[in-house]
Design a protein that fits this description.
With 144 residues, this protein is an alpha/beta fold. The protein has a single domain, classed as Rossmann fold. The protein has 5 helices and 5 strands, in the order βααβαβαββα. Strand 3, helix 4 and strand 4 form a beta-alpha-beta unit. Helix 3 packs parallel to helix 4. The longest helix is centred in the N-terminal third of the chain and has 15 residues. The chain is globular, with a radius of gyration of 14 Å. The protein starts with a strand and ends with a helix. Bound molecules: ligand CA2. The site of ligand CA2 has 17 residues, from loops.
Amino acid sequence: MNVLILNGPNLNMLGTREPEIYGYETLHDIEQRCTAKGATLGLTVDCKQSNHEGQLIEWIQQAISNTDALIINAGAYTHTSIAIHDALKIFSGYKIELHISNPHLRESFRHVSYVSKAVDAVVVGLGASAYLACLETLPEILAS
Ligand code: CA2
């Protein structure tokens, strides 16, 4: 089973600023842990990050043909991007929206998610370990 983990704008800054919100782990560390965890679960995990909306859409489109599940933290595009929403609707595999923080406890502009309307599950507020928690759920979900 192939899993794609997509991270959007500014998430390449994880571990360098605002640790009280996003923790101390870098994206590189998180991605390494995800790849290793995936291997123990029989999942091939590919991790990508971009600050560009169009690049994220390209990767979602490419995943259509070869990916079983997608975990996406679209960053601030979550709250603005109908284009990412539309791309996710086309991807027919299992889709999880993930946020490290809980956007519902933050500014009101973070309370709307265009991503939520196009995914199977939403995980918020668990911190960076949410990526690993999502991976752990996937073997059972993909087998059913
Ligand atoms: O909680 C999340 O995972 C978010 O997707 C993070 C986005 C934010 O716009 C969403 O509302 C919720 C922002 C990512 C910015 O990441 C940074 C990491 C370190 C330092 C500064 C920003």
